[in-house]
Design goal:
By secondary structure, the protein is α/β, with parallel strands linked by helices. It contains 15 helices and 13 strands. It folds into two domains: 159 residues, DHBP synthase (Alpha-Beta Complex), CATH 3.90.870.10; 153 residues, GTP cyclohydrolase II (Rossmann fold, 3-Layer(aba) Sandwich). It is an enzyme of class 3 (hydrolase).
């Protein structure tokens, strides 16, 4: 009997492979390619690619391309030809902005145009989902299925990847248990696991809020530095504690703790962004130099959890109108926006000002 992996299993295997520097095979639109996360590429793997022949390219986002002054002929993606004599350091410097100021003259770059960039676009989405820098070394191959089978590599079809991404916000409840907390002794924690096998998310329920009435709710994205370390660079920790305190005082509410660190880019990339902020870039500029969007979070996850818990109406504790729009677009009624203005310090005043000016937060 032969066991066949489901698309969800293939996707999670691909993420793990990419983090270890192992190539994955992408197929679709009549093309196949090897894709390797630029961040995890090794000298040995680069040498293997060169032995295989063909012209390797580096797929990066248009944000990163703008920083490098490279042409992005495919809109949101640029496909940069990797010179035959390019070193591993050159590839990493193109992918990672850490040394932009020290080594600014990496170009000029030659970008591909024509043909489909669908595989490159998919590779960038994949490395993002693995919480790596959004840059992938690509090598077109003639027979993707044979390449995967003969070398034991993970094979992902574009349609399967798109289907799995559409299902990423679907979650299954795992367990819930009572948890007395400082904010309220009547606390309960619910654990939800995405159907695609991704990271778990949590719902902290205070009291027994009625399901037929608007519930005081907050969508809080995980922030290790703010929530745990008491960072003064953001307002996340104070917002977390203030939201729970308000729910405790009311006697009812639900706080969703979504594991989308750093606005969805992961802790390592968040620290990279902080390093760029130390060079003088604001929070949005830092994300763009890394190749990310302003905000990579998926608030459909929060909407899905609230619906699974039986809530249809919310009084949303937020300063971010995008959260309100996303909940509304996913079938929830936001009856009121409850402001949550806490935690401003001398260290985060500019950060908050940037969020208001560039991201539309109501501060």
């Amino acid at each position: 009997m032969t066991l066949h992996l489901s698309p969800a299993e293939q996707l999670n295997r691909a993420r793990a492979d990419l983090r270890m520097g192992v190539p994955v095979v992408l197929t679709g639109e009549g093309q196949s390619a090897l894709a390797i996360a630029a961040e995890a590429l090794s000298r040995e793997r680069l040498a293997q690619l060169r032995v295989m022949g063909g012209r390797a390219t580096l797929a990066i986002t248009s944000h990163r391309a703008a920083t490098l002054k490279a042409r992005a002929y495919d809109g949101d993606v640029a496909r940069i030809l990797i010179p035959q004599d390019a070193s591993l350091g050159w590839i990493r410097d193109v992918a990672d902005p850490a040394n932009d100021l020290a080594r600014p003259l990496l170009g000029p770059f030659s970008s591909l145009r024509g043909d489909s960039a669908a595989l490159d676009r998919a590779a960038i989405r994949l490395v993002k989902s693995a919480q790596l820098l959004p840059a992938a070394v690509m090598l077109r191959v003639a027979q993707g299925l044979s390449m995967a089978t003969e070398n034991g590599l993970t094979l992902l079809r574009l349609q399967d990847l798109a289907d799995q991404e559409a299902e990423a916000h679907r979650l299954t409840p795992v367990v819930s248990a009572r948890l007395p907390m400082a904010a309220s002794e009547a606390g309960r924690v619910h654990i939800f696991r995405p159907d695609d096998g991704g990271v778990e998310h949590y719902a902290i329920e205070i009291g027994q809020p009625p399901r037929d009435q608007p519930v005081l709710a907050r969508l809080h994205s995980a922030c290790f530095t703010g929530d745990v370390l008491g960072s003064l660079k953001c307002d996340c920790g104070p917002q977390l504690r203030a939201a729970l305190a308000q729910m405790g005082a009311l006697g009812a509410g639900v706080l969703l703790y979504l594991n989308q660190e750093g606005r969805g880019i992961g802790l390592a990339n968040k620290m990279r962004a902080y390093s760029l902020q130390d060079q003088g870039f604001d929070t949005v500029e830092a994300n763009h130099r890394l190749g990310f969007e302003d905000d990579e979070r998926d608030f459909r996850i929060g909407a899905g959890i609230l619906r699974r818990m039986g809530f249809g109406k919310v009084r949303l504790l937020t300063n971010n109108p995008a959260k309100m729009r996303m909940l509304t677009a996913n079938g929830l009624e936001v009856t009121e926006r409850v402001p949550l203005r806490v935690g401003e310090t001398a260290h985060n005043a500019q950060y908050l000002a940037t969020k208001a000016a560039k991201s539309g937060h109501l501060l």
